[in-house]
Amino acid sequence: MGYLGIYDIIGIQSYIFNTSKLKEIIGASVLVENALKELLIASIKEVIKEEECRVTDWSYREDFVLPKNNNILAEVIYIGGGNAIVAYRNKDIMKEVNKDFSKKLFENTYSLKFAFAQIETDFENFSNDYKRLNIEKEKFKYSSNKTRAGLNYSISMQDIDTGMPIIGRYNSEYLTMEKKLKRDEELKSRIKKQQNMDSDFIIPDEFEYMISEKYQNSYIAIVHIDGNNMGKRIEEIISKKEDYSEAVKSIRIISSSIEEIYQKAFNDMVKSIEDKLSDDDFLKKNGIKLTEVDGKKYHVIRNIILNGDDVTYVINGKLALDSAAIFISNIENNSFPLTDKPMSCCAGVALMHSHYTFSNAYKIAEQCCSLAKRKAKVKGKGNTKSYIDFHICSGAIASLENHRKENYIFPGEKPKERDTGSLKYYLYDFLERPWLVTGESNELDWKCFKKMYVDLLYKNGNNKPWPRNRLKELQSKFHLGLEEVKEYLFECKSRGYILPGVDIEDTDYDRKLAAYYDVIELMDHFAFIEEV
């Protein structure tokens, strides 16, 4: 008999996004990523000092050796997606590892916590043990006490953001221990990445370095991407494998492959962006001005989270939507590991000014992604495709869905429901988003979005380009009602401005009008990375 333990880092979002300083956000993300990949491994090595008595290089192994080799006291089965599963020979070793891990986690991150659940097992039926382990993990996560590091003495200075005590002044800023740890980690990570970069761009450590021009009407964007049905796919594979050796081999292949696929998709997307940043005509045409210091230019993108199928990055606002579409297309070129089923994912994009509250923008990006995934499930009917949603941040929003119900329907109307059982999404009178990324020939997808953008703003055949002031006027008419929209479109048509594909004389409402509204709303915040 032995023990199977599962580790889950908790409070990740509040730890990473409780600040609007890019240095601290990136540093927090690196600390979260290292928590299991480095600190847990270090604890196992600290407790089990003999190398031949532990297995920590799980990604390079296929065989599960602990049940076959009595000398092995602990074996990491896998680490990924904020989780780790470790097999232990006995409870004493497991307790010592967890004790050391708690200490290391506090010393290196200050406030990160982990949930841990365990089951006793004979290592005979992995699919059954995997189910039991996850049930125990959920019980522990929602029943454990949420402890917090000590706060202030009456004589200590207090941090205005977190309430934690100030420990010192660094580069003219007062910092808590947590903020100092985050900034130190960001600096180490940035120096290492800068040394390994193939391009000459400088990695930005401030949001201002990523916008087109400081103090101008420039936007940055948070892009949040999440894989579709990943847990379900893994469960389908693991549930069929009782044998531990086969199951562990499969879960290791899946975890490593997903990490590799998403990393490559991100790297290829960044390369596409860098090719455009080297094109002066592209920069001039799209009003993108790169920040330059000592003859070197700052990059326009920096990833925050790249952990399996969970991806978040910040980027110059004009490149956000097309970068997300490129990333998704890169993912779609792969099959899910150990299957022939295509992979897909959804993205949420929140465009904001650099001074906008970052945590609020991240929540909006998350909500966009969630709405995209919901539409993908309802429309997919078992064949879930990739969708992308976006929102331009201006004021505080608690619920994006409620905001759209109140602001994106004609006066006196209600949004139309589309559902399949327990799932539903809404059709708004003048929103098409979330947008399908890759569709069939008769579907409105991202290529259609880009073509509509060209049709509106550039001369295309006999179509005159629309002046921006007319498009802004058309946008305002939507908030007055359908009749006002059609009346204005008739007036524009008499002057040679048309919306290709829209029959304004049709008495029924044309959904393509909603698609054009999306294009108009985004027209000042969009640049092609890939041409139509």
UniProtKB/TrEMBL annotation:
<keyword id="KW-0051">Antiviral defense</keyword>
<feature type="domain" description="Cas10/Cmr2 second palm">
    <location>
        <begin position="219"/>
        <end position="376"/>
    </location>
</feature>
<keyword id="KW-0547">Nucleotide-binding</keyword>
<dbReference type="InterPro" id="IPR043128">
    <property type="entry name" value="Rev_trsase/Diguanyl_cyclase"/>
</dbReference>
<dbReference type="InterPro" id="IPR054767">
    <property type="entry name" value="Cas10-Cmr2_palm2"/>
</dbReference>
<dbReference type="GO" id="GO:0051607">
    <property type="term" value="P:defense response to virus"/>
</dbReference>
<protein>
    <recommendedName>
        <fullName>Cas10/Cmr2 second palm domain-containing protein</fullName>
    </recommendedName>
</protein>
<dbReference type="GO" id="GO:0000166">
    <property type="term" value="F:nucleotide binding"/>
</dbReference>
<dbReference type="Pfam" id="PF22335">
    <property type="entry name" value="Cas10-Cmr2_palm2"/>
</dbReference>
